[in-house]
Amino acid sequence: MSDDIARLARGTLLPSFPGPTAPRWLLDELEAGLGGVTLFALTGNVPSPESLAALTAQMRKAGDPFVTIDEEGGDVTRLGGHATGSPYPGNAALGAVDDPELTRRVYRSLGAELAEVGVNFNFAPSVDVNTADDNPVIGTRSFGPDPELVARHAAAAVTGTQEAGVAACAKHFPGHGATVEDSHLSVPLVDADLELLDRRELVPFRAAIEAGTRAVMTGHLNLPAITRGVPATLSAAAITGLLRERLGYRGVIVTDALDMEGASGEIGIPEASVRALIAGADLLCLGPNEHAETLSATLEAIAAAVRAGRLAPERLADAAERTGALKRWLAGHSPAVIDRAAGLEAARRAIRVSGSLPGWIGAPLVVELEATGNIAVGPTPWGLNPWAPDAVQADGAEGEADRVLERATGRGLVVVLRDAHRHAGQRALTNALLTARPDAVVVEMGLPVWRPGSAVYLATYGAAAANAQAAAELLGLTTAA
Description:
The chain is an alpha/beta fold. Helices cover about 40% and strands about 10% of the residues. It has helices at about 5-10, 25-30, 50-60, 80-85, 90-95, 100-115, 145-165, 195-200, 200-210, 225, 235-245, 260-265, 270-280, 290-305, 315-330, 340-350, 400-405, 425-435, 465-475; strands at about 15, 35-40, 65-70, 120, 170-175, 215-220, 250-255, 285, 350-355, 365-370, 390-395, 415, 440-445, 455-460. The protein has a six-stranded mixed β-sheet, covered by helices on one side. Strands 2-3-4 form a three-stranded parallel β-sheet, with no helix packed on it. The longest helix is centred in the C-terminal third of the chain and has 19 residues, at about 315-330. The protein is globular.
C-alpha cells in the first residue's frame, strides 16, 4: 500500500483501546494519520473527568484526532454518569416536556461538559422515531413516537451540541425505532417502503440535516425495500442513494460500531469496513474491544480492496475531504458554559403523575424491581436508592411479595419499575403487591406503556440521576434544592 493510500485509510478509522492512558501503538498510529478514537466507559477510558482530560491532551500531542463518545444523557451515559447516573435526562423526558429550547439548553450543556474534557465528536442525538413499544434498544433514547416531535427536538439537540463546539451525530440512519431486535445481536428488520420512511423515519433526519448536523451515523438495519437484505451500514442504496442523494446530506457519515453482529457477524470487521467504505461511509467505528490487531487487519483489508479494484482511491480521498472539513470546523469553535440546572429542570417538568400522592408519616419502603438493560445502556446505576438507603431489590422470586409486604408493615410503599411492559415478572410482582397494598405508589422509570389498574402512578420517562432526583422530590424522599 502506498504511503498516500495508507494515510487515507488510517484517516477513516476510529479504533478503541483499554485503560485511561493512550498506549504506544495508538500514539504511533495518530502520528501516522489515524482518524481518531472512540472512548468507552466499560473499557476504563473514563474513570473521571480529570483523567479523561489528561487522556485527550495526551492524544492531541501525537495528532489531530476525532475523540468520539456515546454521551446521550439519560440512560446512555459515559462521562461520569456511567458510575452515578447522568445529571441530564434522556430524550424521552425531553420529548415529554416538548420544549425545544430546553432541549437545546440541555444538549448545549452536555456538549460543554464534553468539550471541557477534550471530546469533540458526540455520537448523539438519537433521532429514531420509537414506534415499536417492544423495541429492545431504543426506548427512552428516542424523543417519542411522533415524527414531527422527534424532528423538532432533533434540530434543537443538534443546535445545542454544536453551539458548544462539539460535532453532533444524528443516529441511527435510516431509523432504528420500528424494530423489535437489537443490532448488537442481529440485523433488525425495518419493514417499511420508501413512502413510509419518508413520512416517519426520515422526518427527523431531514430536520437534523437542516439544523446543520456535522455527522450522521448509520444503523445496521435491513430495509428490504431499500437495501435488499444488506445492512444499511454496508448498503450504497442506503448511504449514497437515500442519505446523500435523496436527503442531500453532504457532511460526514460514520458507522455504528462494526463489531456488532448486525454489521460483521458473518463477514468479520475488516471486510465490513471495506464494504462500508464502498457504500459511502467516511468514518468507521470499530467497537469497544477492537484495538491494534483489528486496526492492522482492517488496514490490510482496505489495501487489498484498493489493489483489487473493489475500492477506488477516490472514495478514500472523498472521505478525507469531508473529515478534513469537519476538523477545520471544530478548530473554529469555542466551548459553551455548563448548565446542569437545565437537566434537573427538564427532569422535573417531564414527570407525569396520575392520582394523588399520599402524605406519608415517616419514610416509605422503596422496592425496585429487576430490569434487564441492553448493551448500549450498560450497567449504569438507576433507581431511588440514593434517597432510600433501605430500598429492597426484588427479582420476582417465589414468596417475594410476602417478604416485601412484611417489611412495609406500618409504612408507605413505593414500587419502582423500568419498562414494565417488557418484563412480565415486574408486572406480576407489582400486581401482587397492589392487591394487598392498593395505597402503594408505582414509579415507572422507563416508557410508561403498561400501567396497573389502580395505584398512584408516576412516569419519569427515564432512569437518569436527574429523573430519579425529580421523582424523589415528589415522593418526599428529599427536598428540592
